[in-house]
Amino acid sequence: MRFFKDLFISERTFIILSAIIVLFVLGHFYPYYDALARTILIGLIGFFILDLIIVFQHSSSVSARRIAAEKLSNGDMNIIKICIDNSTPLTLDVKIIDELPVQLQERNFSIKGRLEAEKTTTIEYSILPKERGEYWFGALNLYFSTLLGLAQRRRKFEADKMLPVYPSIIQMKKFELFTITGRLEEAGLKRQRKLGHTMEFEHIRKYIRGDDYRTINWKATARKAEVMVNQFEDEKSQPLYCAIDMGRVMKMPFEGMTLLDYAINASLALTNVSVKKQDKAGIITFSHKLESLLPARRRFGQMKYILELLYNQATNFKESGFEHLYAAITHKLSQRSMIFLFTNFETLNSLYRQLPYLKAIAGRHLLVVIFFKNVELYELRNSPVRNTEELYIQTIAEKFAFEKKQITFELNRNGINNILTTPQQLTIDAINRYLEIKARGMI
Predict the structure, then answer these.
(1) Residues 216 and 182 in one domain
(2) What's the predicted TM-score (pTM) here?
(3) What's 89's DSSP letter?
(4) Are residues 284 and 370 in the same domain?
(5) Are 430 and 338 in contact (CB under 8 A)?
(6) What are the two backbone dihedrals, phi and then psi, of residue 316, each rounded to the nearest 5 degrees?
(7) Which residue has the higher pLDDT, 298 or 322?
(8) Straight-line distance from the first to the last Cα atom of the chain, in angstroms, rounded to the nearest whole number
(9) How far is CA 233 from CA 79, 203, 208, 219, 220, in A?
């Protein structure tokens, strides 16, 4: 029975059979076609049996395995590799059907390739997860055939393998690399001009053209008989918290991901950059209650704790309680900190309800409120109008877009730093503001 379960007839065989049927029909009118059809049918049966013996005899010596990262990255293209070892002396064609996780909703996934004799072939494909969690891969189905391509044999490998999808590790590492190597412009980050310098002395070095004359160390210059300057460094160990609103306002989707997942990805990248800048990093999450609070530290493995905390965040998207955020910050944060609050406001009334808490937090800490543009509304506002109904819809979109500007004005009027951004630009804008704060010595 196993033989028949693994036996499949190829499309090429069905095409040839269809042609034979046509010849048999024509044979009723022209005897020559009937004889030709019988000859082709006998040849097909012979070659099919020969192909069947070859493919079942040799495909047993083929093995395959799936190779992927231990942790997949949410919102990024993740590479999955399939390595196939063909130890037979024959070149085989293969069709791969990998049973992908249900979250991806891929029902017609297949890849075709050719396996060279006595070689290992690697075939790659990419997946784009849109939510965090456990992704279960099913069996790896390979359908082998020879160059004749009449019969196929199916073999299954690697049944049931779970890969966790974490917040965007790829994005985190990308911004870490650009920050360490100083190639900020390549990632869309801005180089911030320092206004003066901090008072954290690092060392004395030789003067280089362009150095600030105010940093000249005259005593060291007299001793060395050449101009020496004091080298200062940015203040370190400043606490930074990413406060993430997990309420219903963050459930809005954009390109398949919720605003909450965009905020989690940006928080991971931002905290990683701050740790590399030798600051302390922590996380606060809240919805209708305080969900979690990871104190800002610079200990070894802090990013691992942050990654695990963000991965395990789950919410029912209830009404956000900013009073719980204010209470937690008041009682838990004794040192003045940078707080990047990821939330969303669609109307002025929603801002006014939370404004007293925001003003109270901004009075003790350096608060940066980050909220989102409704990209689809902006596109709708700029689309051409063809009738009265579309004009009415565009007017409503213009009203909501203008209200976002009013929210920005109201936050600025109350002395609260804010960023109005799109989900795609969220990480870049957040890191740019952090670098600006560091360069200006605002905390």
Answers:
(1) no
(2) 0.81
(3) S
(4) yes
(5) no
(6) -100, 5
(7) 322
(8) 74
(9) 40, 9, 16, 21, 19
